[in-house]
Amino acid sequence: MGVKSLKEIDAAIKAANTQRDNETIEDFSTRRWNELPRVYYKELPAKLKKEADKVSIDGARRIVIESYPVGSLDELLRQPDHFTELIKRAFLEARYLIESIDTTPPEKTGNIKVDEATAEMWQPVSLIAIDFLEAWERVTGQTLPKVVKLPSLAGKRVEKLDFPVDKVNSKIWDILGEDTKGQIRFISAESLKDKRKGKQINILYAIDFENIDKAVSITRRLTPYDELVYIAISALFSVGNDYITTAQIYNAMGFEGRPSKYDIDKINKAITKMSGARIHIDNLEEIQAKYKYPVVKYDGSLLPMERASIIINGQLAEAAIHIFREPPLISFARGRKQITTIERKLLASPISKTDQNIRLQTYLIERISRIKNDSKSSNKILFETLYSETGINTAKQKQRAPEKIKQLLDHYKECDFIKGYKPDTLEEIKAADGVAIHY
Fold first, then answer.
1. Predicted TM-score (pTM) of this structure
2. 428 contact partners, CB below 8 Å, separation of at least 6
3. Domain membership flag for residue 344
4. pLDDT at 144 over 80
5. Which of 131, 149, 167 is the last residue of a domain?
6. Which of 115, 226, 304, 401 has its CA 20 to 30 A from that of 88?
7. For position 217, what pLDDT does the model report?
């Protein structure tokens, strides 16, 4: 792209970011990526050159090292100053992606953690990894035997997610400390309805984390945040993404913009935990009782996958994951037709995504989905049940809950997930024993 002025770049960004009439989200996403300005360093306006200069030398060094066969760079690595100089020269030969011309740094809040995270996300200019590697080849004369073999794909965004509402999925996230130390029995919902059987029918479930490296510093239990990552990965897989990046997962979870280093680390830890966790599901008792569910006997990884290098939308993803099949707990719910489809915008809620808040968000989505899909289900959500199911136990938590509930329900109303709810003022909600959902 031969543009050189901020005005020209701004016009190109606006054109790329505008969805056309009758253009699908998938087509818009692909076109947007292809049409966003890509400008060689020497053509960048002065303000954007300053931003390009902030690109991490360490990050570029890592891209180069991970893109060449082991041992092929040994001679260069023994000359660190020369190696760094070559990387700097490659910067000048490479193109940069411009998604924003907002060159004004975000205002500081005084909260160090928040300011660092905001600064990480503020990146008006980013180096295109594959262009940088090609520039590196021109500068050094070294070929790229590994890079040319990497699959190059167009990553697909998700606007809808399949949300499991079965009993196993509703119970296992955040109830277990360490391994299950044997099987947990979940009472089949069907056996509770069928009084003639005279006994309860169980679904057997077990999990262990023995395959996770003991040196890895992660909690050996499943959390609500893990479930959100799991659902996001499943949604991305269902629209045709076999290879998935942390940035795609972050977006599918309801976040906007780029993930910070903190977010990337948190998502990667969830992935490491779930891929290393081994689960066992067996619904033989249901089948023997002649309930019309598919036979499920699964013994394997909670998240069957491998780490991979991949070029997605022209960017080299250093820690993408290659998914082998639909995540098994989603398949389990789908086979039982105990799954609901929600729009991604529902997850872009106005409250922060702490485990406690995700627990509340998940419960409300599940409960409202049942209200909408089951005419026999009461449309009233009782706070006593909600608190019990979401771990809201202390007086302080119960004091804060009504405001969060109202924020979420207002958000769901804006998203057309519900038409309204009663009572609908904060004071009335605080005094009530529950809310009635209107859809």
1. 0.64
2. none
3. no
4. no
5. 149
6. 115
7. 47
